[in-house]
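Support reply, case 0932

Customer input (verbatim):
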Amino acid sequence: MSVVEKIRSSKSTAFSFELLPPLKGNGIETVYKTIDTLREFDPKYINITTHRSELVFKENSQGLFEQVSERHRPGTVAIAAAIQNKYKIAVVPHVICSGFTREETEYALIDLQFLGITDLLLLRGDKAKHERDFAPTGHRNATELQVQVNNINAGVFLDGSKVKADFKPFSYGMACYPEKHEEAPNLDSDLFYAKQKVDAGAEYLVTQMFFDNQKYYDFVEKCRSIGINVPIIPGIKPITLKNQLTVLPKIFHTDIPEAFAAELRKCQTDSEAVEVGVEWCTAQANDLKAHGVPSIHFYSMMATQSVKRVAKSVF
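Our regenerated output:
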């Protein structure tokens, strides 16, 4: 059963969360620990992020600095396979444009087929840290990536050769932005591309994190008005650090409502911020559930224990 089928068949609001592969050199134990902490809430699926290589300067044996490509979080496909094997929970690896050639993407998709992993989240991904603007290595955007996945589903590889094996078609979701993507000229433009994704085969949409539920409700209403009828999964995150009051809006371009910001400004320690974050996120999740959302997706990075506390109150 695909992720979208699990979501649609769930009798109540479903629970899911996102994981990051461990930093290079670390083991998978931290991943397992997060899953063990949250599995009691019956996650319908677990997302696993993918990370691009970055160009960094390193000193060589001659004492000179040279530019090399370095990837800090390898292993998305392997982590997905390990989770599926150990926990029998559906996994959704991210497949991104950023930092990957079309050929590398094709090899990853073939590997996922071999492993029996056919749920994906297709994303453009972030620009490299050294880039002023997004510079594609392969696909320029997620809709181009979508075409490649659709072609494989139709049995055609990049070079035009045919898929000989009996491949199970990939099922995939894509991203959407209730407060608009940072590069979009306006929200209507974002809605245009969201509908383009759905019309081309995206079976559900997952939102960027947000802290104001009304913006999500307004966004969903606009999506429905233009014929986007797939599940739109709200993505939320409990704040756990004082500095996230300013860091999260800068990185993710999301507004923090003044009522929430005012409480965070009162915090003297990160421990106090954790309590405020859990309270706000619990209220968000309860309100979303009361509005009958199909699923709530939690961004759990650095927030596993907070997500657990929220889930205990909501699910």
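We compared this against your earlier run and they match. Two observations from our side: The mean pLDDT is 90. The chain has one domain: 3-53+65-314. Please reopen the case if you see a mismatch on your end.
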